[in-house]
Model the fold of this input.
Amino acid sequence: MSGPVEGSASMNQGLEEHRLAQRVVSLEPSLIREMTKRAAEMNEVISLGIGEPDFHTPQEVVRKALGDALEGATHYTPSRGDPELLGALLQWIRDRWGHSLGIQNLVITVGGMGALTAFFRTVLNPEDEVLIPEPHFPAYRPHVEWAGGRVVHVPTRFEEGFVVQPEEVERALSPKSKVLMLNSPNNPTGAVIPPETLDALAELARDHDLLVLSDEVYDRLVYDGQRHDSISTRREMLERTVVVGSFSKGFAMTGWRLGFAFGPSWLMDQLLKVITYETSCAPSVSQRAAYHALRQDPMVFQRMVQEFQRRRDLVYDALHRMEGVRVHRPRGAFYIFPDLSHIAPRWESLALRLLEEERVVVVPGSAFGPSGAGCVRIAYTVDLPALKEAMLRIHRFLERIRKEGRVGV
Ligand code: PLP
Done:
């Protein structure tokens, strides 16, 4: 998750609300905006709040994309995408997901965000319900609501590693349920949905005729030698699943704003209409960069994954040793989501104190849904020495809070 999304809420005072769209004005205020603002005014802040790789896009990718721009890749592309990128991506999807797709199944989008918003606009009628396991990436709710739909939360629990449980999904079903949304590897928890749970969720989706939107933008960032797994690979699931992918996280390309979606042609044909009217196409130079990224030696990006895994281990080991902290070793993405509720039940104002007293930015878990209260999200998107220092500061802070006694917020 990037800064602008986390900081997207409005400060409502003084607004002439009647002149504005209620669905925008009613977005909940976010503490992150306030924290980011305060952090910017301080020295020696270590920000573990930012959901983007600290690595730059590899120079060769940048040089080649700029070379293509100099050669004239500066025009609109077809709405579906640059034909050469589409071809390379179809091969990539075959290699990673095992799907033999045609061009009719694939669309290039402006970030994974562009795919999310286009999907909801394509499938939702007023009051249709979207089942979303929480805690979740906060941008989901506005995407659903702006398309006229309704979010129905499916709670998850620390005890189950924040993995969505099929029984909980079943409990949340209603005659209006239309879409089940999944995000694995997960932002904010780093959880990866295990294969047997994907099997059960696929069965549930088939039995209840649900569409599935599977946000897999962290697909490359899985650890301990795992292979990325997707619900779209289960029996008959590609007929009802749209997978959202992105170049942002796994290729260190957040600023190029390049993503994609693949799914059944009956749906993707309609989604293409939304893309055409919304953005015409994704930026041509960024599409060239994505094409060159796919043609790089995969080790260039694999080394980033190895570095994230080292950081994950450092952060997990440090948190695990701290008194009063419960934590799972994340299996993917670059987030860890420790439960600090034994120290204090809520972390909105304590996260601000952590910033002010120790100069470390973390995100209160409640920003991602009610099941996140008592937790904080830490992004290990800074180098190992900075992480080590951040862990010392967090430890010092937690000890102080524990000494003050249980603190309610
Ligand atoms: N989905 C999840 C779960 C995310 O965390 C993010 C960004 O943080 C996105 C989608 C959107 O990413 P982008 O639009 O940069 O591809």
Residues 176 and 314 are 45 Å apart (CA to CA). The longest helix spans residues 298-321. DSSP finds 14 helices and twelve strands in the chain. The longest strand covers residues 177-183.
